[in-house]
């Protein structure tokens, strides 16, 4: 596999990690992805919430969690509180209802700042991947595996890919900020 292809695959993984990270940042709307990182103590095993219950969004600001085993409803409630999402689950014995409160202006700014920091970390990761690729190319050229023209050509392709992924990160960040700031 070429250095460029390897770098592009790593950059794609960075974008996927950014999207995953952004999915757990709370906005004013209900979303099942808010609970992706919640782990429930299920018979002594830390199990993802999605594997022990159904998470439904019947309204824009309401989440309904229906456990498949009614005996763990208390554990699910504890896990949500421990996840520090700023949400208060209400348990009626059969399902857990969570009302998503609207975000305050200060909280929105804080979340937008968090999103910017996460995006910057991803940009740095993309640039580090480019640097690693360039280093590998220079070593290959020094070892006589590629010519100087090939080195320049692949470096240019690597830079184009880097620019494309950085602009994709900026677009994803812009969408997330817009989502956070709207009520």
Strand content: 15-25%
Q: What topology, given as strand order, has the largest sheet?
A: 3-4-6-5
Could you give a short account of the major beta sheet? 4 strands, antiparallel
By DSSP (H or I, 4+ residues per run), the number of helices equals 4
Mean pLDDT: 88
Determine the structural class based on helices, strands and strand pairing.
alpha+beta
Summarize the helix and strand pattern as letters: HEEEEHEEHH
How helix-rich are the residues, as a percent range?
A: 55-70%
Give the C-alpha Rg: 22 Å
Q: List low-confidence stretches.
A: none
Shape annotation:
elongated
- Amino-to-carboxy terminus distance: 47 Å
Q: Tally of extended strands?
A: 6
Keyword list:
single chain; 183 residues; four-stranded antiparallel sheet; 4 helices; 6 strands
Report on the architecture of this protein.
There is one protein chain. The protein has 183 residues and is α+β, with helices and mostly antiparallel strands. Helices cover 56% and strands 15% of the residues. It contains four helices and six strands. It has helices at residues 3-23, 73-82, 105-142, 148-181; strands at 39-42, 45-48, 53-59, 62-67, 89-91, 96-99. A four-stranded antiparallel sheet has the order 3-4-6-5, with helices on one face. Helix 1 runs parallel beside helix 4 (148-181). The protein starts with a helix and ends with a helix. The model has no long low-confidence stretch (mean pLDDT 88).
């Amino acid at each position: 596999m070429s250095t460029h292809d390897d770098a592009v695959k790593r950059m794609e993984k960075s974008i996927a990690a950014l999207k995953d990270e952004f999915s757990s940042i709370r906005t004013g709307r209900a979303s099942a992805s808010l609970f992706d990182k919640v782990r429930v103590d299920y018979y002594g095993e830390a199990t993802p919430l999605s594997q022990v219950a159904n998470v439904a969004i019947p309204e824009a600001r309401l989440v309904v969690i229906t456990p498949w085993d009614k005996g763990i409803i208390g554990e699910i409630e504890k896990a949500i509180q421990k996840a520090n999402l700023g949400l208060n689950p209400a348990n009626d014995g059969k399902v857990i209802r969570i009302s998503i409160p609207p975000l305050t202006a200060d909280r929105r700014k804080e979340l937008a700042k968090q999103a910017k920091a996460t995006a910057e970390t991803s940009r740095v990761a993309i640039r580090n991947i480019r640097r690693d690729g360039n280093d590998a190319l220079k070593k290959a050229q020094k070892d006589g595996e590629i010519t100087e023209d090939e080195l320049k050509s692949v470096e240019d392709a690597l830079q184009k890919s880097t620019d494309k992924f950085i602009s994709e990160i900026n677009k994803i960040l812009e969408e997330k900020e817009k989502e956070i700031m709207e009520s």
